[in-house]
Amino acid sequence: MERVKLDFPAEAVIHRHPMTVRVTDMNYGRHLGHDALVSLLHEARIQAFAALDLPEWDMHGYPSVVADLAVQYQSEARWPDGLTIATAVPEPQGKSLTIYQRIYQLDSQQVVATARINQLLIDLASGRPVDVPEQVKQALSRARCG
């Protein structure tokens, strides 16, 4: 079986967000369900961009949409595990933001999962993707340096 393998760009981390596995995040296998994992990733991504004053619904005049998502599951998490989700965004190229996220167990730092999301900024008038605005690139660059 071919598995997704993602390389997490640690040098591009812009934010770390603490979270806790909720009992409602558990699946019938008694561990963090894949649907809940995507929800946790979304929350951490929103928090990361909000910390840079870049809400996903208005990134300098453009809302964003997720074009695709890949997840590499690496270990299990269970209620009430504490987690940290690191969000990394390498230098944007063209029309997409490539966002990497890595979920760690808070205590052991064991990797639970790594994800890659390609996000596009959309011109509402045309419905088409636009180049990533320079202001967004600058905000991401400042976050990576600090």
Automatic annotation (TrEMBL):
Signal peptide: none annotated. Pfam families: 4HBT_2. Keywords: Hydrolase. Gene3D superfamilies: Hotdog Thioesterase. The keyword Phosphoprotein does not apply. One of its GO terms (molecular function) is fatty acyl-CoA hydrolase activity. Belongs to the 4-hydroxybenzoyl-CoA thioesterase family. This is Thioesterase. The lineage of its organism: Bacteria, Pseudomonadati, Pseudomonadota, Gammaproteobacteria, Oceanospirillales.
